Amino acid sequence: MSTVRAVLVVEIGSVTTRVSLIDQVDGESRLIGQAETLTSCELPYQNIFFAIQEATAQIADLTSRQLLHDGRLLMPQTIAGDGIDAVVVVASALEPLRVVVAAIAADVSARSALHAVQGVPGVVLAVITLDDTLGHPPAVEDRSWLERQLETLLPLSPDVIVVTGGVEGGATDSVIRLVQLVNLVLAFKQTTGEPLPTIVYAGNTAAQAQVQVALAEYKNNVLMVANVRPELEREVLAPLRRALLARYARQLTDLPGLNALTVEHTTLHTVVEAQYLMTRFWAERQRQPVLYVDVGATTTTLIAAAPDQVHAAIHGVRGTAYGAAHVLSEIGPAALARWLPFAMTEQELTERVLNRVLRPQTIPATREECYLDLALTRAVLTLGMAALRDEAPTLEYSYVIASGGALIHAPHPGMALLALLDGLQPANELPGLLLHVHLDTFGLMSVCGGLATLHPEAALSVFDHDLLLNTPLATCIVLQGSGRPGELVAEVELIAVGGDTEYAQVCSGDLVRLPLPIGRYAQVKVKLTPGVRVGRDVSGEPVASDPAEVPGSLLGLIIDARGRPLSLPEDGAERRRLLWSWLRALDAERSDSPYPEPEIALPEHRGVGG
To answer: Where is this region: Disordered (predicted)?
Structure first.
């Protein structure tokens, strides 16, 4: 790819289209300029190229380069440095994959299939299992299992039906019973003229031939992959997950206006493919476990990677805008309001969330709207981490890269970090003393992932120089163990290289910040009281980082001694005071809360006979 110098990377999101110009500076590929505008997939435009044109024109103005000619992208790059050599498109403005899972056992094959499905931007419409025979009302028990399942499945319009069950070498009769149910569903949809879903068989491989015979009439819609649960105690998720990702990526060709970009040296990928690629690369590069987090308007993505494995929890309808109503229905307004540092009635909260769904392209204009977005962020991260921990009970990560509009556009970096700590609640997943947190303010994980398929050296250069060095957010130490509120649990010493030493006494319940500017490095030493530990070290033992292992960042070193799981007071006023104190600890707020507590209505006094 030596002939490719200037690349335009286009990320098409459900709300925002971001365009990045990558070109060489002193022999290395770097981010030259970036602009974003509202995505033009929906009415009245229904043409992705309109947003690309607008954002590209903004970059042209910023860089004083000509990138468009007669409304088209100027290609290839000229001797004068105008134009571009290639275009990379990564998109997430796709419909979530609608999936039905048909399995033998709910707690075995169905559970493994759901683990695989949660690695794709999608939504599970239904889970059908053969052991679904008990616990139904008497009126329901009068009907057969087949009748009940058909009643569930026929009104649905899935993109994919995953059929699974049976360990390797086991019986095949139960699997064939599931396939017969699927056959009836396909026959009904064919009769009504509905689009036929893709059938992915991921069960006992001994039954593959029988499955193919049973679904012979629909063979073009049938795909065979490895058994997702070959043994009772072992999952194999990757083959099914790859098949689902490929089915999801088929929607790329449906993007309106795509033909305007079908030029030479144009590559097209989904955002999630790019994120998987870069998260795996990052883990292998660091030789440590890492976690990537992206809280979007529609989809929330968590990908955990170690040098030898990858886990994911992706939900296609959980987000801070289009996906906000789904979050509200899952957890309820009361649970969401618990993360707000000001009082709000459940009715007002519901109205604000629904207004966010109706106007997803609206940028938060007030402090209250920012805090509502960050409350939604905490909620989706909590739900995502629960799913990730269910798939990977031994989950680990030492680094976090976070992205998403609510985090990137937070008025203060302390607000973003607090939302991450509250939502992820890192604890036993931390194998060592330090957790390094980066904020991907330019969305470069997706940019680098898309760029890597065209120009790997350019992707590596942008990742190293423009992502990792751009916004190191904080280095965190999470203290775990028991202690009464206000009781001393640790003494911390931060020794800056070539500078001063900072000391802090940390009490149970505290959130402490020790500033360390970007460009500086330090060593940290922690003296723990009995019963308190960090990572997986022995409780009470003193721990220390390597010299210069703590890098400078926007917030410096953060010590979190608030306990795990994080506990919020039931009393609303007390809870809001606590949330505000955490904001002040991270310098996100510098004064007392301006929000008055609501007056408590006293019962009306009535006299005798009144």
So the answer is: 590-610
